[in-house]
Amino acid sequence: MVKRDRTIFGGRADKKKKPKRNEPELARKLGRAGIVARQPLTWAAVTALMAGLGGPKGRRAAKRAGVCYLVGAAVGNLPKPLFGRPQPRQRRAKKPQVARGSFPSGHNAAEVAYVFGASQEAPAAFVPLAALALVGHWSLVRAGKHYVSDTLVGGTMGLAVAAVAAKVWPPSTRSVPRSS
User: Fold this and answer.
1) Burial, 52: exposed, middle or buried (Cβ in 10 Å; 0-12, 13-18, 19+)?
2) Nearest partner of 46 among 118, 136, 123, 110, judged by Cα
3) pTM of the model
């Protein structure tokens, strides 16, 4: 799978990415935004905002998203020792680094589960949450922490978590009355 990643994406994930002078400004800004977007505290803050400002629908979405995030993180991180695939940047490390598994991406599993879990209760939240998750996932590949296939498999696992959550814990069909 690593060979296929390198063939398709030109080995880009194998290179530790340093900002280049000719790199577009947007790529640098998205890279910094991605570092923030992939942090669990960012997702906790988003959950608090949804619960605090979203009314009953937002509270239900925040609760479902939080549960899906935790289950997605467990599903994405627990199988890592079974695969033992190193992070791309660790293939040619110049200094000792902590050995971490790369496959599948636990970040992606948790964040995709969060996005689809929240959107089951509050569909309008899908686009902004998906954009936040996408920037975080892109930055993981750009930083050499994951191959693209790691992120795709992790995202698929997160989607499965959200689908199972919808079956086990069906989304509310209650409509929230509008204030006139």
Assistant:
1) exposed
2) 118
3) 0.76
